[in-house]
Amino acid sequence: MALRADDLIDRRRLRRKLTFWRVAALVVAAAGLIALSTWIYGGEFTGVAVDHIAKVKIEGTITEDEDLIKRLDDIRQSSRVKAVILSIDSPGGTTVGGESIYEEVRKLAAEKPVVAQVGTLAASAGYMIATAADHIVARQSSIVGSIGVLIQYPDVSGLMDKLGIKLEEVKSSPLKASPSPFKPTNDDERTMVRKLILDSYDWFVGIVAERRNMTKPEALALADGSIFTGRQAVANKLVDAVGGETEAIDWLATKGVDAKLKVVEWKDTEGGGFLFSKAMARTIGSALGLPDYGSDIIHELGANRLFLDGLVSVWHP
Predict the structure, then answer these.
(1) Active site includes 195?
(2) Which residue among 87, 100, 124, 277 is the active-site one?
(3) Which of 87, 136, 267, 314 is in Cβ range 3.0-4.6 Å of 92 for a Cys bridge?
(4) The pTM is what?
(5) Domain total for the chain?
(6) Average pLDDT score over residue span 211-217
(7) Domain range holding 194?
(8) Residue 220 falls within a domain, yes or no?
(9) Annotated catalytic residue: which of 17, 107, 171, 176?
Protein backbone atom coordinates (compact mmCIF):
# COMPACT_ATOMS: atom_id res chain seq x y z
CA MET A 1 0.00 0.00 0.00
CA ALA A 2 2.89 2.36 0.82
CA LEU A 3 4.29 1.97 -2.70
CA ARG A 4 0.91 2.66 -4.26
CA ALA A 5 0.51 5.81 -2.12
CA ASP A 6 3.97 7.04 -3.22
CA ASP A 7 3.03 6.39 -6.82
CA LEU A 8 -0.12 8.46 -6.45
CA ILE A 9 1.85 11.32 -4.91
CA ASP A 10 4.43 11.19 -7.72
CA ARG A 11 1.69 11.16 -10.33
CA ARG A 12 0.04 14.20 -8.78
CA ARG A 13 3.36 16.06 -8.75
CA LEU A 14 3.97 15.10 -12.36
CA ARG A 15 0.49 16.31 -13.32
CA ARG A 16 1.10 19.64 -11.60
CA LYS A 17 4.41 20.09 -13.41
CA LEU A 18 2.87 19.17 -16.74
CA THR A 19 -0.02 21.56 -16.13
CA PHE A 20 2.39 24.37 -15.26
CA TRP A 21 4.55 23.87 -18.34
CA ARG A 22 1.53 23.52 -20.59
CA VAL A 23 0.12 26.83 -19.31
CA ALA A 24 3.55 28.46 -19.63
CA ALA A 25 3.91 27.19 -23.18
CA LEU A 26 0.45 28.48 -24.10
CA VAL A 27 1.24 31.90 -22.61
CA VAL A 28 4.54 32.14 -24.50
CA ALA A 29 2.90 30.96 -27.73
CA ALA A 30 0.08 33.47 -27.31
CA ALA A 31 2.56 36.23 -26.58
CA GLY A 32 4.56 35.23 -29.63
CA LEU A 33 1.48 35.35 -31.84
CA ILE A 34 0.51 38.73 -30.41
CA ALA A 35 4.02 40.03 -31.00
CA LEU A 36 4.13 38.64 -34.53
CA SER A 37 0.74 40.10 -35.42
CA THR A 38 1.80 43.42 -33.89
CA TRP A 39 4.94 43.36 -36.00
CA ILE A 40 3.06 42.57 -39.20
CA TYR A 41 -0.21 44.45 -38.65
CA GLY A 42 0.35 47.07 -35.99
CA GLY A 43 3.93 47.36 -34.84
CA GLU A 44 7.25 48.73 -35.96
CA PHE A 45 6.77 47.85 -39.61
CA THR A 46 2.99 47.77 -39.80
CA GLY A 47 1.77 47.42 -43.34
CA VAL A 48 5.02 46.17 -44.85
CA ALA A 49 2.99 43.68 -46.84
CA VAL A 50 0.70 46.37 -48.29
CA ASP A 51 1.15 49.74 -49.95
CA HIS A 52 1.06 52.58 -47.44
CA ILE A 53 2.24 56.07 -46.51
CA ALA A 54 5.10 55.88 -44.02
CA LYS A 55 5.10 58.24 -41.07
CA VAL A 56 8.30 59.03 -39.18
CA LYS A 57 8.30 61.02 -35.96
CA ILE A 58 11.29 63.28 -35.29
CA GLU A 59 10.89 64.51 -31.75
CA GLY A 60 12.95 66.00 -28.96
CA THR A 61 16.59 67.00 -29.07
CA ILE A 62 18.30 66.15 -32.34
CA THR A 63 21.64 64.34 -32.32
CA GLU A 64 23.36 61.97 -34.73
CA ASP A 65 20.77 59.18 -34.77
CA GLU A 66 21.98 56.07 -36.60
CA ASP A 67 18.72 54.21 -35.93
CA LEU A 68 16.65 57.01 -37.47
CA ILE A 69 18.96 57.25 -40.49
CA LYS A 70 18.72 53.49 -41.04
CA ARG A 71 14.93 53.66 -40.73
CA LEU A 72 14.78 56.38 -43.38
CA ASP A 73 17.01 54.28 -45.62
CA ASP A 74 14.77 51.22 -45.10
CA ILE A 75 11.76 53.33 -46.02
CA ARG A 76 13.52 54.53 -49.16
CA GLN A 77 14.20 50.95 -50.22
CA SER A 78 10.72 49.62 -49.40
CA SER A 79 8.60 49.14 -52.50
CA ARG A 80 5.48 49.25 -50.31
CA VAL A 81 6.08 52.82 -49.15
CA LYS A 82 4.50 55.20 -51.63
CA ALA A 83 5.11 58.46 -49.74
CA VAL A 84 6.45 59.75 -46.44
CA ILE A 85 5.19 62.11 -43.74
CA LEU A 86 7.85 63.53 -41.42
CA SER A 87 6.12 64.49 -38.16
CA ILE A 88 8.47 67.03 -36.57
CA ASP A 89 8.29 68.34 -33.02
CA SER A 90 11.78 69.45 -32.03
CA PRO A 91 13.59 72.52 -30.66
CA GLY A 92 16.69 71.47 -32.61
CA GLY A 93 19.95 70.01 -31.38
CA THR A 94 23.45 69.50 -32.72
CA THR A 95 24.18 70.97 -36.13
CA VAL A 96 25.86 67.75 -37.26
CA GLY A 97 22.83 65.74 -36.15
CA GLY A 98 20.54 67.98 -38.19
CA GLU A 99 22.87 67.80 -41.18
CA SER A 100 23.03 63.98 -41.18
CA ILE A 101 19.25 63.59 -40.99
CA TYR A 102 18.72 66.36 -43.55
CA GLU A 103 20.95 64.55 -46.06
CA GLU A 104 19.14 61.24 -45.52
CA VAL A 105 15.76 62.89 -46.03
CA ARG A 106 17.01 64.42 -49.28
CA LYS A 107 18.03 60.95 -50.51
CA LEU A 108 14.56 59.71 -49.62
CA ALA A 109 12.81 62.66 -51.28
CA ALA A 110 14.70 61.94 -54.49
CA GLU A 111 12.73 58.68 -54.80
CA LYS A 112 9.42 59.23 -52.96
CA PRO A 113 7.24 62.28 -52.18
CA VAL A 114 8.06 63.61 -48.70
CA VAL A 115 6.02 66.12 -46.71
CA ALA A 116 6.96 67.61 -43.34
CA GLN A 117 4.19 68.08 -40.80
CA VAL A 118 5.18 70.47 -37.99
CA GLY A 119 3.58 69.93 -34.59
CA THR A 120 4.29 72.23 -31.67
CA LEU A 121 7.79 73.17 -32.75
CA ALA A 122 10.29 72.89 -35.60
CA ALA A 123 13.12 75.21 -34.67
CA SER A 124 16.76 75.44 -35.68
CA ALA A 125 18.03 71.94 -36.60
CA GLY A 126 14.39 70.79 -36.45
CA TYR A 127 13.51 73.32 -39.13
CA MET A 128 16.64 72.37 -41.07
CA ILE A 129 15.28 68.83 -41.34
CA ALA A 130 11.84 70.11 -42.35
CA THR A 131 13.37 71.98 -45.30
CA ALA A 132 14.60 68.65 -46.68
CA ALA A 133 10.98 67.72 -47.42
CA ASP A 134 9.24 68.71 -50.66
CA HIS A 135 6.42 70.46 -48.80
CA ILE A 136 5.95 71.78 -45.25
CA VAL A 137 2.69 72.18 -43.35
CA ALA A 138 2.40 73.63 -39.84
CA ARG A 139 -0.36 74.44 -37.40
CA GLN A 140 -1.37 78.08 -37.13
CA SER A 141 0.18 78.28 -33.66
CA SER A 142 3.23 76.09 -34.35
CA ILE A 143 6.64 77.63 -33.66
CA VAL A 144 8.96 77.67 -36.67
CA GLY A 145 12.37 79.21 -37.35
CA SER A 146 15.27 80.06 -35.03
CA ILE A 147 17.63 79.73 -37.99
CA GLY A 148 21.16 79.94 -36.68
CA VAL A 149 24.09 78.28 -34.93
CA LEU A 150 25.69 78.80 -31.53
CA ILE A 151 28.24 77.53 -29.08
CA GLN A 152 27.67 78.06 -25.38
CA TYR A 153 30.12 77.29 -22.61
CA PRO A 154 30.21 78.15 -18.91
CA ASP A 155 32.83 80.29 -17.18
CA VAL A 156 33.45 78.88 -13.71
CA SER A 157 36.68 80.81 -13.13
CA GLY A 158 34.99 83.10 -10.56
CA LEU A 159 33.78 80.09 -8.59
CA MET A 160 37.24 78.54 -8.73
CA ASP A 161 38.72 81.76 -7.28
CA LYS A 162 36.25 81.64 -4.40
CA LEU A 163 37.10 78.01 -3.70
CA GLY A 164 40.84 78.64 -3.98
CA ILE A 165 41.26 76.34 -6.98
CA LYS A 166 43.85 77.16 -9.64
CA LEU A 167 44.21 75.59 -13.07
CA GLU A 168 47.65 74.88 -14.47
CA GLU A 169 48.11 73.73 -18.04
CA VAL A 170 50.77 73.24 -20.68
CA LYS A 171 49.52 73.68 -24.27
CA SER A 172 51.13 73.19 -27.65
CA SER A 173 49.62 76.49 -28.84
CA PRO A 174 47.52 79.31 -27.36
CA LEU A 175 44.25 78.24 -29.00
CA LYS A 176 44.50 74.56 -28.07
CA ALA A 177 41.48 73.41 -25.98
CA SER A 178 39.88 76.84 -26.20
CA PRO A 179 37.47 78.13 -25.13
CA SER A 180 37.76 76.64 -21.66
CA PRO A 181 35.21 76.85 -18.83
CA PHE A 182 38.07 77.28 -16.37
CA LYS A 183 39.16 80.73 -17.53
CA PRO A 184 37.66 83.76 -19.30
CA THR A 185 38.03 83.77 -23.09
CA ASN A 186 40.31 86.27 -24.76
CA ASP A 187 39.85 88.11 -28.06
CA ASP A 188 41.74 85.51 -30.13
CA GLU A 189 39.61 82.68 -28.74
CA ARG A 190 36.35 84.52 -29.37
CA THR A 191 37.47 85.35 -32.92
CA MET A 192 38.21 81.67 -33.61
CA VAL A 193 34.84 80.56 -32.30
CA ARG A 194 33.02 83.28 -34.23
CA LYS A 195 34.63 82.15 -37.50
CA LEU A 196 33.46 78.63 -36.76
CA ILE A 197 29.93 79.81 -36.04
CA LEU A 198 29.68 82.06 -39.09
CA ASP A 199 30.89 79.36 -41.47
CA SER A 200 28.20 76.91 -40.31
CA TYR A 201 25.63 79.71 -40.21
CA ASP A 202 26.38 80.57 -43.85
CA TRP A 203 25.90 76.90 -44.76
CA PHE A 204 22.57 76.74 -42.87
CA VAL A 205 21.27 79.94 -44.50
CA GLY A 206 22.29 78.56 -47.90
CA ILE A 207 20.17 75.46 -47.27
CA VAL A 208 17.15 77.58 -46.36
CA ALA A 209 17.60 79.79 -49.45
CA GLU A 210 17.94 76.79 -51.76
CA ARG A 211 15.14 74.67 -50.35
CA ARG A 212 12.64 77.51 -49.86
CA ASN A 213 13.33 79.17 -53.22
CA MET A 214 14.63 82.40 -51.71
CA THR A 215 17.47 84.70 -52.53
CA LYS A 216 20.34 84.71 -50.03
CA PRO A 217 19.37 88.21 -48.78
CA GLU A 218 15.77 87.04 -48.25
CA ALA A 219 16.95 84.05 -46.24
CA LEU A 220 19.38 86.19 -44.23
CA ALA A 221 16.59 88.58 -43.29
CA LEU A 222 14.76 85.66 -41.63
CA ALA A 223 17.89 84.07 -40.17
CA ASP A 224 18.44 86.38 -37.22
CA GLY A 225 17.28 83.76 -34.73
CA SER A 226 13.64 84.88 -34.87
CA ILE A 227 10.82 82.41 -34.37
CA PHE A 228 7.47 82.59 -36.14
CA THR A 229 3.99 81.17 -35.77
CA GLY A 230 2.78 78.82 -38.47
CA ARG A 231 0.78 81.62 -40.05
CA GLN A 232 3.76 83.99 -40.00
CA ALA A 233 5.96 81.23 -41.42
CA VAL A 234 3.59 80.82 -44.39
CA ALA A 235 3.73 84.57 -45.05
CA ASN A 236 7.53 84.45 -44.89
CA LYS A 237 7.75 81.39 -47.18
CA LEU A 238 9.32 79.23 -44.47
CA VAL A 239 6.25 76.98 -44.59
CA ASP A 240 4.00 76.12 -47.53
CA ALA A 241 0.61 75.77 -45.86
CA VAL A 242 -1.25 75.75 -42.57
CA GLY A 243 -2.60 72.38 -41.50
CA GLY A 244 -1.89 68.93 -40.11
CA GLU A 245 -1.80 65.36 -41.34
CA THR A 246 -4.96 65.73 -43.44
CA GLU A 247 -3.43 68.64 -45.36
CA ALA A 248 -0.19 66.71 -45.70
CA ILE A 249 -2.04 63.78 -47.28
CA ASP A 250 -3.98 66.16 -49.55
CA TRP A 251 -0.67 67.50 -50.86
CA LEU A 252 0.65 63.98 -51.41
CA ALA A 253 -2.45 63.30 -53.49
CA THR A 254 -1.35 66.08 -55.87
CA LYS A 255 1.81 64.02 -56.42
CA GLY A 256 -0.14 60.96 -57.50
CA VAL A 257 -0.27 59.25 -54.11
CA ASP A 258 -3.56 57.51 -53.30
CA ALA A 259 -5.08 59.52 -50.42
CA LYS A 260 -6.87 56.37 -49.22
CA LEU A 261 -3.62 54.60 -48.39
CA LYS A 262 -3.16 53.86 -44.71
CA VAL A 263 -0.67 56.05 -42.81
CA VAL A 264 1.68 53.74 -40.93
CA GLU A 265 4.21 54.91 -38.38
CA TRP A 266 7.63 53.36 -38.73
CA LYS A 267 9.29 53.07 -35.34
CA ASP A 268 12.69 52.07 -34.05
CA THR A 269 13.07 48.31 -33.56
CA GLU A 270 15.81 49.14 -31.02
CA GLY A 271 18.32 46.65 -32.32
CA GLY A 272 18.88 42.90 -32.21
CA GLY A 273 16.34 41.94 -34.85
CA PHE A 274 12.66 41.37 -34.14
CA LEU A 275 12.96 38.20 -32.06
CA PHE A 276 15.52 39.79 -29.73
CA SER A 277 14.41 43.41 -29.83
CA LYS A 278 13.24 45.51 -26.88
CA ALA A 279 9.97 45.97 -28.73
CA MET A 280 9.47 42.19 -28.76
CA ALA A 281 10.29 41.99 -25.04
CA ARG A 282 7.85 44.80 -24.26
CA THR A 283 5.09 43.15 -26.30
CA ILE A 284 5.53 39.82 -24.51
CA GLY A 285 5.78 41.58 -21.16
CA SER A 286 2.57 43.44 -21.89
CA ALA A 287 0.83 40.20 -22.84
CA LEU A 288 1.95 38.70 -19.52
CA GLY A 289 0.80 41.77 -17.61
CA LEU A 290 4.31 42.90 -16.73
CA PRO A 291 5.30 46.60 -16.42
CA ASP A 292 7.52 48.23 -19.01
CA TYR A 293 10.98 48.84 -17.56
CA GLY A 294 12.55 49.89 -20.83
CA SER A 295 11.95 53.64 -20.57
CA ASP A 296 14.99 55.85 -20.42
CA ILE A 297 14.18 58.19 -17.53
CA ILE A 298 16.98 60.60 -18.33
CA HIS A 299 15.73 60.93 -21.91
CA GLU A 300 12.15 61.40 -20.74
CA LEU A 301 13.24 64.25 -18.48
CA GLY A 302 15.05 65.92 -21.37
CA ALA A 303 18.36 65.86 -19.52
CA ASN A 304 20.16 64.82 -22.71
CA ARG A 305 20.06 68.48 -23.75
CA LEU A 306 22.57 69.20 -21.02
CA PHE A 307 25.19 67.09 -22.76
CA LEU A 308 25.09 68.45 -26.32
CA ASP A 309 28.58 68.96 -27.67
CA GLY A 310 29.96 70.81 -30.67
CA LEU A 311 28.07 73.34 -32.79
CA VAL A 312 24.45 73.57 -31.74
CA SER A 313 21.39 74.57 -33.75
CA VAL A 314 18.77 74.65 -31.04
CA TRP A 315 16.14 76.99 -29.65
CA HIS A 316 16.84 77.51 -25.91
CA PRO A 317 19.48 74.80 -25.29
Answers:
(1) no
(2) 124
(3) 314
(4) 0.74
(5) 1
(6) 96
(7) 45-314
(8) yes
(9) 176
